[in-house]
Amino acid sequence: MVNRLRGTLECLTDDEKRPLRPIGMGVREAAARTGDLLVRLADIPGVRLLAGVRVTRRTPPIGFVLVTATHVLLIESVAWPSGAYTTTSQGAILCDGVDIGQSVHPLAGAVHRMRRLARRRVVSAAVVVHPSDSGRPSLPVTHPGGPIWLSPGEVRSHIARHLRGKTYRHTDIISWYAFGSPLNQKDGRHAADLAVT
Fold first, then answer.
1. In this predicted structure, what is the pLDDT of residue 95?
2. Greatest CA separation found in the chain?
């Protein structure tokens, strides 16, 4: 995964303040499992896979971002035990009707922020839900404007279908990487600090 990936998952930390977080495994382990599913998509011409992207200074980094000339897809990873998961209109996540203290609202905010930065691109989000026990969690319904909820088995086909026919322009590469990786925590830059052409 290292050769095809820009950035690192090292900036992801287990924190109760993460709006979306795994239950029963660490955030890096859940993200690494998703990364294993995404890495081959980075072989598609015109697709760039970024890891550990901080969209704003106040929010935790997002696990992965897939970028093409026309699309930006923010991808978060969680691991949840079996149960029926739903979301409220305010973005709270419920398991079997009980609030689990997580929310998709900050991810939706990151999508809106990226839409302002990447004006000529379609920006959306996906949440990959890994099972953290022997059962399979029942995923929330995808609402218009909300994230797409994917099981690990759906990731490759869904995203490949979504990206089919999309290309990546050389000028986009320059804008994302001109100052080094936007994911590089050493230089203090964040995705929101970079101009997206």
1. 96
2. 48
Contact predicate 194/183, CB 8 Å: no
Q: What is the pLDDT of residue 94?
A: 96
For residue 134, give the amino acid letter. S
CB 51 within 8 A of CB 5: yes
Question: For 96, what's the count of Cα atoms within 13 Å in the CB-facing half-sphere?
Answer: 5
- Considering the entire predicted model, what is its pTM? 0.81
Contacts of 101 (CB under 8 A, 6+ apart): none
Element of type H or E holding 35: helix 27-38
**Amino acid letter for position 37:** L
Report DSSP letters for 101-170, one per residue. EEESHHHHHHHHHHHHHSTTSEEEEEEEEEESSSS-PBPPPPPTTSPEEE-HHHHHHHHHHHHTT----H
Give tens-digit pLDDT for 88-122.
Answer: 989 999 999 999 999 999 999 999 998 988 877 88
Can you tell me the distance from the alpha carbon of 188 to that of 57, in angstroms, rounded to the nearest whole number?
10
Q: How far apart are the first and last CA of the chain?
A: 27
Closest-CA residue to 77 (of 87, 93, 62, 91): 62
